[in-house]
């Protein structure tokens, strides 16, 4: 448990309880595949925990399509200074997430059953995270309106990260984002390092240009 201890520090016992819950209830309810159990730490928990390297102190984070809580719950465990909202539209998943929050005693986590489009007027987050939710061109449309001016989207991506970033350029241009780049975190802790697409929102990222609804006459 060398790397696990290095990554999670004093929060390792909490991470271990979460891993056990994922391997049990997570598999039973179809949120984690049975074949993933043997690689929960390297492929899932550590892979998500190192995202914390890119998250500012005391940030308000929304985890879009949180599913089993990856990376949202992991970030809340490793970074108790964060305020994390797990945004998930499916009831069975929000039930699982609420059970996780109660089991792990995470006071810095809120579970919200909703789609991103339904909470645009309520949210002005510092960071939006997402893992295995949708291609970047779609994800950006959901995430960017949830951010405060200058907030950032951190999307965990695999080997197609560069391709997705290129394909998303038209959408990102419509939103007028400040920057969009590839970023690797977790070097020396997870192999290969976790790849993020980091998109920094413009000064007023409420919606893509040209997406306003026309008023009825």
From TrEMBL:
Positions of S-adenosyl-L-methionine binding: 65, 70, 116-117, 131
Name this protein carries in UniProt: Ribosomal RNA small subunit methyltransferase G
Role: Specifically methylates the N7 position of a guanine in 16S rRNA.
The protein's enzyme class: transferase
Signal peptide annotation: none
InterPro entries per record: rRNA_ssu_MeTfrase_G, SAM-dependent_MTases_sf
Places the protein is found: Cytoplasm
Keyword Methyltransferase: yes
Protein's organism: Actinomadura vinacea
Gene from which this protein is expressed: rsmG
EC number: 2.1.1.-
Family per record: Belongs to the methyltransferase superfamily. RNA methyltransferase RsmG family.
rRNA processing keyword on record: yes
Keywords, in A-Z order: Cytoplasm, Methyltransferase, rRNA processing, S-adenosyl-L-methionine, Transferase
């Amino acid at each position: 448990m060398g790397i696990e201890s290095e990554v999670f520090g004093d929060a390792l016992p909490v991470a271990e309880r979460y891993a056990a819950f994922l391997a049990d209830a997570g598999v039973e309810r179809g949120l984690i595949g049975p074949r993933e159990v043997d690689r929960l730490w390297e492929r899932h928990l550590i892979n998500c925990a190192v995202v914390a390297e890119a998250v500012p102190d005391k940030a308000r984070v929304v985890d879009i399509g949180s599913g089993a809580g990856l990376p949202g719950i992991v970030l809340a465990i490793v970074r108790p200074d964060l305020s994390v909202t797990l945004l998930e539209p499916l009831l069975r998943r929000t039930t699982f997430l609420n059970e996780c929050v109660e089991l792990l005693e995470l006071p810095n986590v809120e579970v919200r059953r909703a789609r991103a489009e339904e909470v645009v007027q309520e949210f002005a987050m510092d960071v939006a995270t997402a893992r295995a939710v949708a291609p970047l061109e779609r994800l950006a449309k959901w995430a960017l309106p949830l951010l405060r001016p200058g907030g950032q989207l951190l999307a965990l991506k695999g080997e197609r990260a560069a391709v997705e970033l290129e394909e998303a350029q038209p959408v990102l241009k419509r939103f007028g984002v400040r920057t969009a780049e590839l970023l690797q975190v977790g070097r020396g802790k997870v192999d290969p390092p976790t790849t993020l697409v980091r998109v920094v929102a413009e000064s007023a990222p409420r919606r893509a240009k040209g997406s306003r609804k026309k008023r009825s006459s």
